[in-house]
């Protein structure tokens, strides 16, 4: 069975924008799309009574409306809808073991609140077993519906490669695949700490190390243009500066057996402040 793209949907503007992004991702990846709604986890501003039947009716209506719009827009898209009684966090984490990609809505800069309220979204991002993408409401890079085309000039898939080596491979794999399917360019970013003072030839050596990490992916995706960017500064500001014209930012999350909830500071910064969707990729 082909692993689907799964998007959490509650009817809020953030989740609807996420569903539009997820539909394009599913088409690009030749994957089915699953719209998942937890009727026990709904936004605080949803005007429905507290009775279970009312919440379930609301959930079915949200799923039906969004599925119909996506199918009307994308004739080749395969969509299924799931109304679940689990909390949204539990349902998405369960699905993360057998899906290709999770997609979450975000209400915008300064918070990572989605249809998963507040810190619950961070719970999912910290524990998901597959890459998870957050898409903020009214994201200018996302074609979010009728009369709302994606903004031009956002062509880069920005990927943070702080430690070139095996740990960066899952990030590069996702980034290059996205760049190929979307017709974008890879911008691979590595930050040198402010205290770093290169000696003779060291700056060139660091750039060469980044280039070496990228070489296998250049060979696998020969039609994807690549820009290497090595800069002195803290990793988060360097990455955010590079993402100004990004279409997607790709950051890593280490699998930490003893600290499974922890997202690193670079991932936090990207989720709060990047001007485009952010993919958080687990790696060893």
From TrEMBL:
Top-level taxon of the source organism: Bacteria
Entries under InterPro entries matching the protein: Rossmann-like_a/b/a_fold (IPR014729), Universal_stress_UspA (IPR006015), UspA (IPR006016)
Name of a matching Pfam family: Usp
Record-annotated UspA domain positions: 2-136, 156-282
Entry's family note: Belongs to the universal stress protein A family.
Organism: Streptomyces broussonetiae
Protein name: Universal stress protein
Gene3D superfamilies hit by this protein: HUPs (3.40.50.620)
Transmembrane segments: none
């Amino acid at each position: 069975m082909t692993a689907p793209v799964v998007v959490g949907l509650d009817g809020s503007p953030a989740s609807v924008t996420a569903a539009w992004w997820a539909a394009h991702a599913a088409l690009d990846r030749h994957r089915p799309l699953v719209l998942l709604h937890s009727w026990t986890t709904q936004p605080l501003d949803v005007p429905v009574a507290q009775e279970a039947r009312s919440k379930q009716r609301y959930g079915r209506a949200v799923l039906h409306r969004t599925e119909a719009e996506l199918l009307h827009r994308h004739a080749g898209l395969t969509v299924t809808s799931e109304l679940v009684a689990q909390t949204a966090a539990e349902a998405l984490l369960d699905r993360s073991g057998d899906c290709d990609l999770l997609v979450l809505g975000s209400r915008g800069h300064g918070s990572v609140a989605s249809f998963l309220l507040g810190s619950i979204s961070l719970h999912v991002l910290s524990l998901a077993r597959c890459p998870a993408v957050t898409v903020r409401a009214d994201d200018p890079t996302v074609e979010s519906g009728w009369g709302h085309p994606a903004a031009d000039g956002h062509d880069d898939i920005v990927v943070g490669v702080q430690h070139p080596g095996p740990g960066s491979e899952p990030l590069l794999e996702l980034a290059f695949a996205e760049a190929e399917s979307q017709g974008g360019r890879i911008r691979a970013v590595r930050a040198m700490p402010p205290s770093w003072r290169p000696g003779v030839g060291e700056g060139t050596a660091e750039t060469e190390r980044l280039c070496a990490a990228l070489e296998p992916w250049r060979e696998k995706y020969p039609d994807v243009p690549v820009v290497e960017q090595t800069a002195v500064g803290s990793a988060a500001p360097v990455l955010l500066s590079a993402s100004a014209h990004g279409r997607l930012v790709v950051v890593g999350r280490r699998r930490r057996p003893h600290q499974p909830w922890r997202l690193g500071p670079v991932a936090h910064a990207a989720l709060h402040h990047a001007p485009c969707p952010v993919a958080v990729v687990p790696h060893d």
